[in-house]
Amino acid sequence: MSPMMDCKDSHSLFSREQLIYTITVPLSTSIILANLVIILGIAWNRQFHNTPNYFFLSLLVADMCTGVALPFIPLMGLNRELSFSSCLVAHVFPNFLFLAFLLNLVMVHYERYICIVDPLRYSNLWMHRSFPLALLVVWAPPLLYASLPAFGWNNWTGPDWDNCCTSSQKLTPVSNCSTNGTTCCSYKRVFPNAFIYLEVYGLVLPAILTIAGMTGRVLWITRSQMKDICRLHRSVERGSQASDEEQRLNLRYTRCVVAVSLTFLACWVPYLIYMHVCIVFLISDTKWSSTTHIVLSCTGIGSMAVVPLVLGLANRQYTEPAYKLLRKLRDRWK
Question: Least buried of 30, 77, 179, 219, by fewest C-beta within 10 Å?
Answer without folding.
Answer: 179
